[in-house]
Amino acid sequence: MKTTKTLAWLLGATIALAGCGDKGTETSSTGSATPEAGKKLKIAVIPKGSTHEFWKSIHEGANEAASELGNVEIIWKGPLKEDDRNDQIKVVEDFTTQGVDGIVLAPLDDKALARPVMDAKNSGIPTVIIDSDLKDAETVSFVATDNYKGGETAGEEMAKLLGDKGKIVVLRYAEGSASTNFREQGFIDAIKKHSGITIVSENRYAGPTTDSAQTEAENLLAGFKKPDGSLDIDGIYTPNESSTAGMLRVLQQNNWAGKVKFVGFDSSPKLLDGLKSGEINGLIVQNPRKMGYEGVKTIVDAINKRTVSKRIDTGATFVTKENMESPDIAKLIAPPKA
Q1: Between the N and C ends of the chain, which has fewer C-beta atoms within 10 Å?
Q2: Closest to 59 (Cα-Cα) out of 291, 299, 235, 274
Q3: Cα–Cα dist 128/269, whole Å
Q4: What is the model's pLDDT at position 38?
Q5: Do residues 150 and 316 make contact, with C-beta atoms less than 8 angstroms apart?
Q6: CA 179 to CA 323: how far, in whole Å?
Q7: In what order do the strands lie in the sheet with 311-313?
Q8: Rounded to an integer, what is the distance from CA 218 to the centroid of its chain?
Q9: What is the pLDDT of residue 91?
Q10: Residue 334: which region, alpha, beta or left (left: phi > 0; alpha: psi -120 to 50)?
């Protein structure tokens, strides 16, 4: 009888323990493990590059979120060049091998990064995409500017600057970059609504750096140089920081700056100087700090099995010489350091 009672007690204890489970390995809907109490989460933040002011602001935002959360360590690493897809793929693969808790990624290519992101998910590591979207991969959320809308805004503002008539050129950024592709298409679609404006070139690519953009801008504008040295175009559009900076250099070096309408994307000290001097007529300015901040907050919420939005729009503003010193815009273009 005593033996029977002992066996019954042991069986009940075994069932109770099985019902409790191991909370440290509980799997969430994202495929990630719920973190143990007191564990510091390691979040890999992978930009497209590291030299542009845009990525530095994203880094600041990511650090700000980590500081607020307290239990998060940011590991910042990206490719050396903004056209090195293989390097960025390797960075993602290395972080997957290391077993980080989550990834915040700005993919260089909307297709090439899909496989390593899915490999990370299959290893229990969720990914939030920032800045530029990714196709054919299951991710937690997309945190970015509405790039098509930003391009549309640039197009409408260009039409106003030109009085609905004239010839313009578009210097694109790079093939496979989803964010800039949308900015370019949004701009082109907006301009097509204005029958008095003609896009005379839209098939040249600036490449990953300010130097490559300068070279392409020189080649592009050489085809529109008139015998008297002036340009046979009325407007120019560029869709990111490096393409805008490279184009500005060419305009300045050839005494064309301020003589054609010029709308660009993103900001940096040099671009803001161009805006102040009237060499640039307007910049579509994103909020990269918010992008980094929301990216980290969102991946941590997902790891902790909280509900997250699949799409977070971080906004964009058209900045001009006239409005750049207003308090809200001044904070946006020159945010305080984290």
Answers
A1: N
A2: 291
A3: 29
A4: 66
A5: yes
A6: 25
A7: 72-76, 41-46, 102-105, 127-130, 141-144, 311-313
A8: 27
A9: 98
A10: beta
258 alpha carbon, distance to own chain's centre: 29
Contact 319, 285 (CB under 8 A): yes
Q: Give, in degrees to the nearest 5, the angle at Cα 289 between 283 and 291.
A: 95
Helix (H, G, I), strand (E, B) or coil at 201: strand
pLDDT for position 210: 96
What percent helix, strand, coil does the chain show, rounded to 5? 45, 20, 35
Strands of the chain (E only): list them: 41-46, 72-76, 102-105, 127-130, 141-144, 166-172, 197-205, 235-237, 261-265, 282-286, 311-313, 316-319
């005379």: which residue's tokens?
Answer: 200
Q: Give the tokens for residue 219.
A: 């080649």
At 200-209, the pLDDT tens digits run: 999 999 999 9
Query: Both tokens of residue 253?
Result: 């070096």
Strand partners, 263: 237, 282
Report how far residue 67's alpha carbon sits from residue 56's, in angstroms, rounded to the nearest whole number: 17
Predicted confidence at residue 39, as pLDDT, reads 83
Domains of the chain in start order, with CATH, are: 29-144+288-314 (3.40.50.2300), 147-286 (3.40.50.2300)
The one-letter code for the residue type at 31 is G
pTM across the whole model: 0.83
β 282-286/261-265 pair status:
parallel
